Amino acid sequence: MTNTWNDNQPIYRQLRDRVVAMILDGTLNDGDALPSVRSVAAEYRLNPLTVMKGYQELVDAELVEKKRGLGMFVLEGASDKLMASERIKFLNEEWPGIYARIDRLGLRLEDLFINEKENKGEE
Asked: Confidence class of residue 5 from pLDDT cuts 50, 70 and 90?
């Protein structure tokens, strides 16, 4: 996790989003423990209540679970659940704008794949 926060969104939500990203990219897997509230608060100079609020949102979303006396752990299937919801979000919120821009620029599907190959150094 990075140590910088922006003013566009509450810190607890940014923290939640960072943990979600860690689950999606495989840094945190099913069954893995989240860093403790105390360690995150100390490392990032946050109020422990702020960290707890971000973690509680993950519990409420059924992505992590509290194990009394042990900490917070990523639930089984959290990555799959997040991936499905992120795909739906992308298709509903981001793709229409991307598609409209592709259409405005007159790009074809082949143009996109040719450019991708060139960027990777393929012929």
From this structure: confident
**Do both 17 and 70 map to the same domain?**
yes
Tally of domains within the chain: 2
CB atoms < 10 A from the CB of 74, how many? 21
Spatial neighbors of 4 by CB under 8 A, at least 6 apart, are none
46 torsion bin: left (phi>0), alpha (psi -120 to 50), beta (else): beta
27 has pLDDT over 70: yes
DSSP codes, 86-106:
HHHHIIIIIHHHHHHHHHHTT
Nearest to 3 by CA among 13, 20, 17, 15: 15
